[in-house]
Amino acid sequence: MQKTQQLYEGKAKKVYATDEAGVYIVSYKDDATAFNGLKKGTIEHKGSINNRVSNHLMQLLEKEGIPTHFLKELSDRETAVRKVRIIPLEVIVRNIAAGSLATRLGLEEGTKLRCTVLEFCYKRDDLGDPLVNEYHIKALGLALDEELAQLSAYSLKINDILGSYLRDLGIELVDFKLEFGITDEGKLILADEISPDTCRFWDTKTGKKLDKDRFRRDLGSVEEAYQEVLFRLMGIN
Ligand code: TMP
Questions:
Q1: Count of structural domains within the chain
Q2: How far is the CA of 176 from the centre of ligand 1 (A)?
């Protein structure tokens, strides 16, 4: 399989068309941004770690019945994925109050939520990805009712699968962000990535942050934390 043209360059990944119908290649970058691109930096080896972490978790989800874009890991930082049209929503799943939820609702970070919270943000960098509800999504035509119902059900199931898988590895899944897409055949599947860039992972015992908050908040040992997540997934101690 050959890349034909670069279709898109985002903050953390590039996406290429290929000579195979219905197949794209994603290439993970070491670039890191936060606060909608205001803070910029590099996290050494992030691209290859996120590529491997995301592929590992997507394959786990596939086994558990969640359709994903994953096809084949091609190299350290490149993966072949199913071509999709991305639904312009960030789906955020929260188990413990942290980040923007803690700020918005005046909760202390670490407060256990009484039930899982699903949030939707409209993917619009120029607007700072604003929070939207089901009515906004319908009014703006961002997703069909059936698509919204399906992606919400998938998101909750993904939370159950990943939550218990990670707990066994000593990682608490605090919250995370998902993106879904529609294939040329009209099927809704999980796309984008699941990595320390897009999740909050706290060490179950110590509470140590093993995710991008170390970069966002200048906590240090960023690379080591990403590496730690990969090692735990791979069963390396
Ligand atoms: P938040 O608390 O900043 O709203 O973040 C919630 C979760 O979503 C957290 O796990 C990090 C992830 N996230 C992204 O993946 N991309 C983003 O642009 C933002 C703001 C958050």
A1: 2
A2: 7
